[in-house]
Prior knowledge:
Elements: E1 3-4, H1 5-12, E2 15-17, E3 23-24, E4 26-27, E5 37-41, E6 57-61, E7 73-77, H2 80-93, E8 100-101, E9 106-107, E10 112-113, E11 118-119, E12 124-125, E13 130-131, E14 136-137, E15 142-143, E16 148-149, E17 154-155, E18 160-161, E19 166-167, E20 172-173, E21 178-181, E22 186-189, E23 192-195, E24 201-204, E25 209-210, E26 215-217, E27 223-226, E28 231-232, E29 237-238, E30 243-244, E31 249-250, E32 255-256, E33 261-262, E34 267-268, E35 273-274, E36 279-280, E37 285-286, E38 291-292, E39 301-303, E40 308-309, H3 310-345
Parallel strand pairs: 4-5, 5-6, 6-7, 8-11, 9-12, 10-13, 11-14, 12-15, 13-16, 14-17, 15-18, 16-19, 17-20, 18-21, 19-24, 20-25, 21-26, 24-27, 25-28, 26-29, 27-30, 28-31, 29-32, 31-34, 32-35, 33-36, 34-37, 35-38, 37-39
Antiparallel strand pairs: 1-3, 2-7, 22-23, 39-40
Amino acid sequence: xxxxxxxxxxxxxxxxxxxxxxxxxxxxxxxxxxxxxxxxxxxxxxxxxxxxxxxxxxxxxxxxxxxxxxxxxxxxxxxxxxxxxxxxxxxxxxxxxxxxxxxxxxxxxxxxxxxxxxxxxxxxxxxxxxxxxxxxxxxxxxxxxxxxxxxxxxxxxxxxxxxxxxxxxxxxxxxxxxxxxxxxxxxxxxxxxxxxxxxxxxxxxxxxxxxxxxxxxxxxxxxxxxxxxxxxxxxxxxxxxxxxxxxxxxxxxxxxxxxxxxxxxxxxxxxxxxxxxxxxxxxxxxxxxxxxxxxxxxxxxxxxxxxxxxxxxxxxxxxxxxxxxxxxxxxxxxxxxxxxxxxxxx
Length: 346
């Protein structure tokens, strides 16, 4: 389909800076922009591409001021990245919808699937499971006993949802993710480890997205909870009895140990890790590969392992590079002090 710049601006409540009648029929990255495509500029590091890209329409933040003449049509919006997400979502929804129950799917007679659901080949919906309206259960997904899934959810291939898990509305679970597997609970007993049964469950609230091959363990007792709007990347590990706050985001390979409580609007960089039984306040940012071993107050930014306040880490990192030189200087000063002591004693 083709859209004019003015049509796109109307969809996004933006303003056109240039030719409102120019048309596009595709998207492209700004550095690879092709004619008749739309691209965007959200990161200032990529600004130099805006002057050479072949894309015909460019989404920019409304306060963007070009540093050189521009011949392209701009659409100014409050947030170019968020506006791009709106357009891509619109295009995604125009794709042909999967519908119906495949004849090779298994749905237990006691299970319930809502209106407008799709259940793919070899998907399994177990005893007493409840699936809401307009859900898509892709091939080879497994829905355990007594699982409840809300409306408008997407369960991609090979997702496993263990018994008793509760999934809210508008959730997306990507391929291979595991919801409700046993938490890592073992009690030392005479030189061996006795397994502690994990009798709780997992609760994902509304609008949660879980990345591919991410694992969320069921609680020992009670629930492991991922609150509304949280987004977890691929290969994230959430241990038993963790609570992840609303609209918190975690990049790939983040690991959260048991019984950690995480606040709202937190951000976790890739490969960051948290020790067990600590609390993280609201609006905390934790950098990639940071290791957090104690509770953190709200509105802090931490880097390093063990994690330090970002400003302290940056000051310390300057010293790290000088440690060999400082060590040699200390050795030299120690020798000089010893020599002075000997002279004084003489």
